[in-house]
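N-acetyltransferase
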Amino acid sequence: MHVCPPVDRARWRDIDWIVDLVTATVAPTTLGTWLVPDERRRPAVLAAVARIWIEHALLFGDAFLLKDGTAATVWFHRYRPIPPPPRYAERLVDACGNDGGRFRRLTHVLAARRPQEAHNHLAFLAAPPDVDRPGQAAAVLAGSHRSMDTLGLPMYAEAYSAAERRLYRRLGYRERNRLTRPDGIPVDLLWRPVPPLRLGTVTAPAVRGTVRRRVRRLAMVADPGVGARG
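Structure:
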């Protein structure tokens, strides 16, 4: 019998822990090295930028943690335009100093190739280097899919390594496109279609109701007057 990996939906109190997981995951990679060449400053800068986006995702998406806290996913629900984080330019300068230009270049390159149709966007798959990293990454992603699939939307992810590509393909993602990062490294853009609904688990009306509630929540965040007018 298939057992869903144990994951919890993250809350605001979990942000510090997710920031640490993202930082530990990205810092040793070629992407982390390019974004922040100074090895001494790299963890602090990556953590500060990750915090901006993780906080934003908890307003316009979701995050999930393995129950043992060893891995996390961070998602954006892109079924409507998402504004930039509040005071983003100012916060990026505070976080990065002279490294901010590389973060802006990467964000621009990724955003330019992002699909226009509604989808859930995997912003971070955080599973730090460890003897069981492949298992932790697979567990948190598969567990996240269980909740995310109730929204009835396809999923989109950027794969930065061969290991990530293998994992995503195993969990139903397929190649959609490819781009080249500003540092010259290729990135595979992957797409996971909406899985067929299983009878007895969730119905199409339930999915539509969930989507409507989430759209309304996002609208109220962007315009508090929506709730008063509704």
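The longest strand covers residues 119-126.
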